[in-house]
Write a structure and sequence with these properties.
Elements lengths: L1 H23 L1 H10 L2 H22 L5 H18 L14 H16 L4 H10 L2 H30 L14 H7 L16 H32 L1 H16 L5 H7 L18 H6 L5
Family: Belongs to the cytochrome P450 family.
Cofactor: heme
GO molecular function, one term: monooxygenase activity
Length: 285
């Protein structure tokens, strides 16, 4: 038992040291700093989302929130990853070939899990079906991402863009990868490959992760809130009261203080999660 405990301690220390080395690298500090820049999301919402919602409310027209959230998250992810704003979310709702290509590629990949390999090879050989859509989608994705990479390298070459430690517009993930491709000079640890193929694959993965997951979560959240009027009214009351509170208000200090984390399940008591919980379940939960 003592030997096993000693091995576990060594593994834990190795993991801690590995995380320490990662946090020392400038590129990882820039990545963490990048995704904590709330003002980027705030600015994109102020310039894109709010005008669209105001215009729709004044016109009294129907709005596809899933499409709106996909455009918003696409703009946000593209801004943080590449440093460029495609401005997909605007009043005219422009056509976005990149987003459409992503949808076609994801659909084709889904069918690859259903159709037999022989059918997929037959589609690729004759050039039709989902395999043809996937091939066309890859061309669009490579073209758009390649354009962003070329623009970024040209900006860095001309000195018009550089990675900074503040909240500047030049702080983006693509710039971090390109500028830190030589790795850490002191440790030689974690050298970043800045070849175009590596950059394209990395950008594509981040764009897919940032667009689909967040937009789906936002869409479901709005649907759940609108399905529970009691919760919706409480949220409105909280927002209204927050506007009325002052910074030096004693009531505000009470609302902003920290509370102990509520234990949903007591460690000493195990009870059924069916009959009793169903009786106590309410819309707020």
């Amino acid at each position: 038992m003592a030997a096993n405990s000693f091995i576990y301690i060594e593994i834990l220390l190795a993991i801690i040291y590995f995380l320490y080395l990662i946090c020392k690298l400038p590129i990882f500090r820039n990545i963490i700093h990048l995704f904590l820049n709330i003002h980027r999301i705030h600015d994109l919402c102020a310039k894109g989302l709010i005008p669209v919602l105001d215009h729709t409310a004044k016109q009294g027209s129907v709005l596809d929130l899933q499409d709106v959230f996909q455009r918003l998250t696409f703009d946000t992810t593209c801004k943080m990853v590449t440093g460029y704003d495609p401005e997909c979310l605007s009043l005219d709702f422009p056509h976005v070939p990149f987003s459409e290509a992503l949808d076609q590629a994801e659909e084709a990949i889904f069918w690859r899990h259903i159709l037999p390999e022989s059918a997929l090879k037959f589609q690729r050989w004759l050039g039709f079906g989902t395999e043809k859509k996937l091939s066309q989608a890859w061309k669009i994705l490579d073209q758009v991402i390649g354009k962003y990479i070329s623009m970024k390298k040209e900006d860095l070459k001309n000195g018009t863009n550089s990675i900074k430690n503040d909240d500047s517009e030049g702080s983006d993930l693509l710039t971090s990868y390109i500028n830190h491709n030589q790795g850490d000079e002191k440790t030689g640890f974690m050298k970043i490959n800045n070849e175009d193929k590596f950059l394209r694959d990395t950008i594509l993965n981040l764009m897919i992760a940032g667009r689909d997951t967040t937009s789906s979560a936002l869409t479901w959240f709005i649907w759940l809130v609108t399905s529970h009027p009691v919760v919706l009214n409480k949220i409105r009351e909280e927002l209204t009261s927050a506007d009325e509170l002052k910074a030096d208000d004693e009531e505000a200090q009470k609302k902003f203080r920290l509370f102990k984390v509520y234990k949903v399940i007591d460690a000493d008591k195990k009870r059924s999660s069916q009959a009793k919980d169903e009786e106590e379940l309410n819309e707020s939960r």
